[in-house]
Amino acid sequence: MILNTYGNGFGLTWVLLVGAVTIWIPTTVARGEDWHRWRGPNSDGISRQSDWSTRWPNEKPNIAWTQSVGTGFSSIVVRGDHAFTIGHQDGQDVVVCLSVSDGREVWRYGYPASLDDRDFEGGPTSTPTVDGDRLYVLSRGGDLFCFDCVTGELVWQQQIADLAEVRLPGWGFSASPVVIGDHLLVNAGESGAAVNKQDGTLLWSSADRESGYATPVLIPDSQPTTAIFASSRAYIGVDIRSGEKLWSERWLTSFNCNAADPILRGDRMFLSSGYNRGGALYQFVDGQPQLLWKTKEMQNQLHTSILYQDHLYGIDGDMDAGARLKCLKWETGEVAWSVDDLSPGGMSIADGKLILITESGELIISPATPQGWNPIAGGQVIQGKCRTVPVLSGGRIYCRSVQGAVVCISCRD
Amino acid sequence: MSLNRRSFITTSSAAATLAWAPKVHSASKDKKYRTALIGSGWWGMNILREALAAGQTKVVALCDVDSDKLELAAEEVNDLCGDQPKTYGDFRELFDKENIEIAIIATPDHWHALNTIAALNAGAHIFIEKPTGHTIGESQAMLAAANAAQRVVQVGLHRRIGPHHVSGMEFLKQGGAGNIGLVKMFVHNRGGKETPTKNSPPPETLDWEMYCGPAPLRPYNRMIHPGGFRHYLDFANGTLGDWGVHWLDQMLWWCDQQSPISVHSIGGRPVRGEAVLNELEQTSDAPDSQVATYQFETFTAIWEHRRFAGDGPEKSSVGCYFYGDKGTFHMGWRDGWTFYPDDPKKPVVHQNSDLQEPDGHNIQLLWADFLRAIETGKKPVAGIEVGHQATTLSLLGMLSMKLGRSVRWDADQQRIVDDEAANALLRREYRAPWVYPELT
Ligand SMILES: NC(=O)c1ccc[n+]([C@@H]2O[C@H](COP(=O)([O-])OP(=O)(O)OC[C@H]3O[C@@H](n4cnc5c(N)ncnc54)[C@H](O)[C@@H]3O)[C@@H](O)[C@H]2O)c1
Description:
The complex is a heterodimer of chains A (about 425) and B (about 450).
Chain A: H1 10-24, E1 46-47, E2 63-68, E3 77-79, E4 82-89, E5 92-99, E6 105-112, E7 129-131, E8 134-138, E9 143-148, E10 154-159, H2 160-163, E11 178-180, E12 183-186, E13 193-196, E14 202-204, E15 217-219, E16 226-230, E17 234-239, E18 245-250, E19 263-265, E20 268-273, E21 278-285, E22 288-295, E23 306-308, E24 311-316, E25 324-329, E26 335-339, E27 344-350, E28 353-358, E29 362-367, E30 377-380, E31 391-393, E32 396-400, E33 405-410
Chain B: H1 8-12, E1 33-38, H2 42-53, E2 57-63, H3 67-81, E3 86-88, H4 91-97, E4 102-105, H5 112-121, E5 125-128, H6 136-149, E6 153-155, H7 163-173, E7 180-188, E8 197-198, H8 208-212, H9 238-254, E9 262-268, E10 281-282, E11 289-295, E12 300-306, E13 318-324, E14 327-331, E15 337-341, E16 349-351, H10 363-376, H11 384-403, E17 407-410, E18 415-416, H12 420-424
Parallel strand pairs in B: 1-2, 1-4, 2-3, 4-5, 5-6, 7-12
Antiparallel strand pairs in B: 7-13, 8-10, 9-11, 9-17, 11-12, 13-14, 14-15, 15-16, 17-18
Helix pairs in contact in B: 5-6, 6-11, 9-11
Bound molecules: nicotinamide-adenine-dinucleotide (NAD).
């Protein structure tokens, strides 16, 4: 039934893709790479894994297991046999470690936090970060934790808002902590803060102004090593050793909601936010961003777009008003295509395919090409509202609903 | 309809053209109006975009008390048309310094009267957002000032001109639903208990003192600005004062601007919980549910809103039902209009909506009508009288709810009959130095 919606081209497209997969295998890297952090191993929303398929029995997503983790938006990260996320249950936030094979809970850690459901369903909004055998977690209220991934033991804990003496943004902290060398970067304050990842001691902090909601992004090969922090009113390049501001690109958004991560390639940087703000591409000239083009056609309210080959794939528009799935040309910002009636709830890319979950819980796989949206497989996987990115790791796709259902779909025969 | 019309408007608006009708400009399409936007928030920018798209607007000035909003708006205007508007934090200074032909006003409701009167005094034509006042006295003063100034005033009631509204009204007026005995206007959403949000110092970019203006200066809270003011009675009048104005206006359009004989309303916050306002934190204070009854000579109109429970068994969450002896007519929003005959064997009649995005409105047509009115001297479809009357009905509902009893309205005298306590609520105290607009 559901598969009817993927059109008549299903069989044909699939055959073509099988061909494509065999061609691409030699160039594919790191088959076993875990999706161990927000935006995946390369921080670009793309998994390089190719040994997965959607040749599901009965042509419906093959649900391996389902687990309930509590209310929230936190996405799933994986380390070997374990998957991690956060949810709000029974009046507290809970960090859970699940077995990837059967969804069984391996360990859990609860900490006091309110649901804080004023403008949305509430619960945690940031995604944990795996680094080696450590797991870093940031709560909306600013509690920052380091756990042992295997045992769930608490290694250290800090209250970052108190430690850095900065205020919480309106909806609380939502960025993932980012590990660079010994630094753990946290988007708190005007242009971030850094603690020592070993013991949580403060390395530097920034002015007491509202942060934005996006996760810090490292500029590859930068000298000095630079990360970009979203504040409530700008995207700011920061020397991660000293915390010194190197440049700042003013970026005003209604409700101070700078939530999409900057996207970098070569000397280019793409910024975007919702509430009718839109997007813009910059080029770094003498270390300073200079505007190349602007568009209203890509307004990323909550979700960062994905740059794949020469196109940006993203969710355009405010979620409550009904957002669109769009593909834009990176060079010019021209719209290659747009699907207006899909209600996308989150998306990643793996091996050239968009892995998308609709807001109502339908998982859809479609080749990521500027030619158009041509789903090749999919089906209903969750009952509930979905706004969390579905991710692929180790041949499994992990989806999550706001209400806290985590569904694992097996993509290996 | 054989209705006995009893309206102060029918007499004053009998003439189809305004007395001061200017000569018709023939090459008027080339004319660019020097335009200012007061309140460059969400809806203000929706209007300004339509104004720019119509091609006869030169944006010379923007005014907002939030400098971030100003900067964003100025950048967008520049991107859209190359204009480089001057930016102001105080509308008085703007009208002093700039020579404005058209003022678009989209501030929170409690500012509408003072903004409009200042713009009229500066000689501008006005596109003002509904409601036309936060208390009835303000709306009366705006009406008087507009009539005295002989300028075109268009109120942002775009549903007066939206294609499905026009065709639906035609259907009703031709008797499609038969003889109408009851009208129900409604808006329903979801929601639950409201927990208080912590107050905070206003952002450095916001002139909170000027935001509050004539309203009491309350502690700043991020839930109020932007957009949230509509649920705080110091600044607006909740759902009835917001959505209610649109649907009351549809009802008034259908009944040819009759006036109700009496109004009664009850409402409260049974689900959201009692309003909180202290130094540390606050909630909104508008009713989460409310019913208002408008008794007309030959029919009854009822308003009902709920900010909880969703649509339930109903097909639609907003609009007006016109109940006639041939069936039920639903005037909706995105869902267009639908007529359900009382005889289930007869076919349902439906018309889709034809709206502009974002946010599903018909400002494009309303703006075109506004320009036409300026150029030809014809009355605009949603002139100040129309806006005043719809606003008055919504505010009478709020007034009755606060007063705890029904009120009888004398539209000719613009007074509540035999109830001085009620008449005292037609206006409110302003915070100094602002002075309540008096009827001139
Ligand atoms: N016709 C419709 O369909 C429709 C739809 C939405 C809103 N509206 C109306 O538009 C108005 C604005 O609503 P909104 O949702 O855009 O709110 P908003 O909060 O987004 O915008 C209002 C703006 O006015 C500014 N402001 C406050 N005091 C000011 C002053 N003294 N001078 C200049 N600017 C000032 C605020 O800073 C804010 O930016 C309301 O009256 C509302 O009823 C009408």
